[in-house]
Amino acid sequence: MQGRFVRITDFFKSHRLTLLVWVPIALYYFRFIKRPDGMTQFPQAANCFLIGKPLAFCAGSFTYPPAFAFLMIPFVFMPMWLRNIVWYVLSIAALYFGFRMSEHLVMKTFRIRFEKDQLYRFRFLSVLFGLKFVFAVLENQAYDCLIFFLLVLGVYGLAEENDFLAASAIALAAAIKATPLLFFPYLLFRKKWKVFSFCMVFFLAISFLPDLFFSAEGQSTYFGRWFQDTVAPSLFSSGNASSLHFWEGENQLNQSLRSFIYRLAARGEIASHFREVLYIIYALFLFLLSYLIFEFSKMELPYALDGSVLMIGMLMLSPMSSKSHFVVLILPYMVIWGYLFRSNRLNLKTPIGFILMASFAFNSLTSRGIIGDRLSTILLLSGCVTIGTLLILAVLGLVIFELRRDRLGAVDSAGAF
Q1: In which domain, by residue range, is 388 found?
Q2: Which of 177, 233, 283, 319 has the highest local Cβ count within 10 Å?
């Protein structure tokens, strides 16, 4: 009897932390269902296929690729309570497995073997730094947690040399979100010809999947109409004034680089030259991304670092990046913390530590619940999340500098012998 009691006690001791995590997640469901935005909008767009109507006609606020609406067709036949349960389980599962795969990638990239206490601290800090964006995804019932999972799965496939897994995950993410298309030229740079070829085939097949089963009156293809109505205006500044303002206006929820530059230009004397300034900034930003990826290529396993840079690039180059989109920053934050643990440089008084904490302040400490509605709106209009995300990119640049310095130091030490 006593031995059985000891086993029960040990069970609860070992699972105490697990209970502390999963019980709040279960309770958060009741907040999740208060605003069923996603489970109203997504099935509404999916129903457009079933009634043979264009997406713009019967789901005007749905600006996502048609392939995502196609995947939402099963939710059309569910009552709202079941939609909420299924979507919440999918969201939590995507976040959990995306987090665990990110952890595996960090440990493999830096060859870390965490002790138990170190692992708990690493997980706690990683969750803390991305928690605001996790809440944003769940509160809006957004599907960016699925994008996070798919992209991490794609990076995992690259690290494990599983071409099919990498291609299918990246292609699916690109087909239902579009911004992960940034991974395609990266695959060419890394000379992943097979992965790139598979990605192109899978992307086109998934993108035109709705048109294989459905057609809408008054349009040729769902994919073509979506490109014409949504993608072209944001890329080429075509369309009417209202659509242009949608991408570039003073919407504080839009924390993309484009919106940040637009607000700065509108306050200054260069508003008439906004497009020229934007293209120059874009060119400089793309050069910076390319430089970072080129430098990381000198590592044996650069994929987690490359993926972090590309995810930041997606957020900044997208015409519209709201807070829920930034959940993909979980991977960059985990990579940085993994590097700090691996190099025993957890002193926050260093340049990396200072910039990392500044990024956390801009990204997570500017919420309405912390500083109030008025100040939060002012900071969002100033692009606080944009700045915080660019600071993460700066930290990754410092990581490159330190890795290069350590590598040169190791070469000099070997030469001395």
Answers
A1: 33-412
A2: 177
